[in-house]
Amino acid sequence: MDSCVEIQSLGNRMISILDLKASPVGVKLLSDEGNSPQQAVRLRRHRYCQALMKARQGEHVLLDREGIACPAAAAAFGFRELPDGLRNGKGLVGFGIVTKPETGQRMFENMPALFPGQIHQLYLFPLNRANTWPDVVVVEDEVEKLMWINLAYLNATGGERVSSSTAVLQASCVDSTILPYLEDRLNFGYGCYGCRDATDLGSSETVVGFPGRMLTAIAENLEYLGRKAIPNSRAKKAYAALS
Asked: Does 242 fall in a domain?
């Protein structure tokens, strides 16, 4: 099967099995500025979470140093240095996110990040319309649906418990993209102030990311779960019997 057709098929299988509201998003971290996909629209003044939203809704988009609006995400991707107001934690106090500057300072000190210049741009696209294999797959939807992706990953990795890392900050850029890319594993969280403020992510929805190399295994295990576990759980027969 042609690789593009295969990726699109995997994306559509995930949508169908989980009843996702939109497509999973493929993310390509590009080190070559001259290797921009022709069909992608270069975004300006967009946050990374907003680029994810557009890709989830069907667009092919590019985001680079000049186009990314969020200073924290820009620093995480190695595009720009972290501003002093965030580095010293006072910015997070100003947003009402933390009570003490030292807390915010420590959150940014421990932020997983790419090296400056490690990549030049980000290419985001709907998985069911993919034309290249993703480095990372990001899925945004209701918690219950993402739970099955975690279980599919657990099946694919032989039953080892799935750990997560988050600061409840930078849920889209760091937690769901950079961590899966750097540590080659699935990561999930509860979302964050920024992505909930800047996108259409609902209060019952969150985000998960996993390495692109795991896409086939996760889709295959979702198919297995979809034959019995998912429909049985969603039927709530045990709950119905209780009443």
From this structure: no
